[in-house]
Amino acid sequence: MPLTGVHPSTITIGCGLVHGVDAIPVQVEATTRHAGDGTPRLLGLVDACVREAYHRVLQAFFALDLPPPRGVTTVNFAPAALRKHGSGFDLPLALALAGAAGLFPPERAHGLFAFGEVSLRGQILPARGAVSVGIAARRLAARAMLCSLVDAQLCQVIDGLPLHGAPTLADAIFWLAGRRELPPPPPRVADPGDTVPDLADLRGHATPKLALCATAAGGHNLLFTGPPGTGKSAMLRRLPGLLPPLGPAERLAVLQVHAAAGLALAGDRRPLRAPHHTSSAASVLGGGADVRPGEVTLAHHGVLFLDELPEFRRDVLEALRQPLEDGHVTVGRAQKTVTMPAWFLLVAAMNPCPCGYRGHRQRPCICTPAAIARYRSRLSGPLLDRLDLQVEVPALTAAELRAPEDPAGSTARLRERVLLAHDRQQHRQHHNGITVPNARLLDRALQRACQCDDAALLAVDEVLRHHHQSGRGRVRLLRIARTLADLDDHDTVRDIDVLQAAALRGFQASALG
Fold it and tell me: Which pLDDT score, from 0 to 100, does residue 503 have?
């Protein structure tokens, strides 16, 4: 049965333009008039995808037996100076046209945000970046947000945002007309994702596993160096199983990033991103014409794993220094500079030389000194300085590989130590709703956290003197020692913590030195 009603002069529906991981609020305004040449006008610097949306929406009207707007339609996407792109404008455009055609009272559109793609049959489909648009709608105190059922499930993590999911455009219009109810979206059931392998599967390697625990507990970046086949990559890929669970704010941030990239989040675990060493700077840092998140942003609140570290392009590795220090990455464009979050743990693996067997117990190294020097020179000193833990992973003997599984080295047991250390940090370093990890403690906060005894202070002085470390080296040494003390459930940093921290820093037997 066709709908009839008052034909308002102009109707406005809220929407959002996804730029990076955030959404810029956009208003879709539609009006009709009966004079003119009959050609619809889409204003506001729209791209081909948005221009095509007009024809997709009209076909959806015909497919659902809804009366299309009569006369000449003019649609404006404000702010007009910002280029609009993406299929998420389909639904607000369709609702604005329906309102201009008088299919629902204009007051029902007041304060409404809409986002989603519309198929030729009138189905409302999910669109990239719905979570970002929902966050923008909540910030503007929107009356409600209307989207697809899939996106409504995702956006349920946004507290304080009234959500409505509609399967078809007809359901959305009849709801706005007050003639149909939209049920609340079903609870989101997180995909458990792939099961994380257990560290107990890997025999031996007590020191590398301690380094993994320190990385997970204190937020320290980590580099494993060793011959091929020693388990470097296998251990690093098991790191997410040790990390503390995502908090509510972190979960929303991770979901927003993945939704902005058009990716599904596998479970509620912290993300693990492992780009190939041939990846470009734009794919790692983010970029493109529409500025999409790169690997460093997709690893936000998770792990960025770089295997075969020296094989990455030099410009890519050097560009990592800024997000490692600042926790965000900035991509400049002529129209707008986009800043995207990038708090991540950097873990990496590399061979000690081009052939991979320098220092191996059985296989000789065939590399020349010049080849080894060239290989090492691919990694700059400033980048290596940001890798707090630099640990050798030696090849295991046949007897060590035959050893029985050690329950104390399982992911579950080690995660208990990590969670205990994390709780200690929260109790000690939680201020204004933020817990500062040990790896980012500065100045007075570091002094208050460490509480070194006399023996520990003497050990620090000896390590600094023997290895010619600067003040920055002292800070990193104390941060690691604080994490090791937390793992052992100690309030005071002891000399054994300092000496273990020096070993994990690679001061005693570094393959890089």
Answer: 93
